[in-house]
Input
Amino acid sequence: METIPYLFDERKQNLEVYAQKKIYSTLKLLNKLPLVQNPSGNFTNYVSDDPTDVTGDAISTADGMDYNEIKFGEPSAYRGSTVPKGYMFKMNTRLEDQGKMDATLQVFMNKAVANLANYYDKLYLSSLSNGAGAVAPQGLNTITSSSTGIDVLENELKIIDAMEVKNDTETGFSPNTCFLPRADALAIKLALAKSNLLDDSNFEYIGVPAASIGSGHKLVMDMNNPTATVEKFADPNYSVIAQLEQEPDMNAELLMQLPKSFINIKMIEPNEPQRSYIYVFAESNVNILEPNGIMYI
Output
């Protein structure tokens, strides 16, 4: 059983490390997309309306000759902001005298992190689905418990072709990851396994809560190219890891033992006897860089 670590002298800091590891093991997109520390909380990215609008063919280079320019049409501005979310726990400090402090904190932290992960799973996947620019193909097979691996692979080929080519022109994006409800992911994996075609699949299928993506729906992405980032603000006032990250060269050895900052924790002692308040919160959202590397089906 994983327990609260003791890398630091303060309980709050060790609790943060525990929470950080939990959120990374639960919130799948944190391990899939680039993570960006965003102190402002706001972001604006310009993404092309049509990145396949190329001026002229590629040309050979010679002295005094310029490259042909790739034009991206009139860009569209997508504006957004990180979304703070958190929980508070009132704890009786008598638990420490009774030897129950760490166990109680661990139970609270597990609940808080699980709820944060569910919230951001839904937020991230909703943002990505709404910003998807690749057009889904027609005629995909419906996958059920009686489907075969061939049905799955036929779908994959149609999805790959639809994302890679737009208006008969290569887009530069190729899908390799599919987020879908856990029950649907299981049906696909079973179909591939029964047909001995697991190794022939082009996609990694990642099951998520049904509340994040509806049954029968899929979010397909190119994870080898930058299509989106996870913007977050880990406040150095409430995150020891964020403090260390401000001077990475000085703290390189310690940072190697820690996940990147995401969770914030604040502990206060109010003017109440035997009482302590613990706040666990995060501030994050998804920032879409290139819609044509994202497809919602």
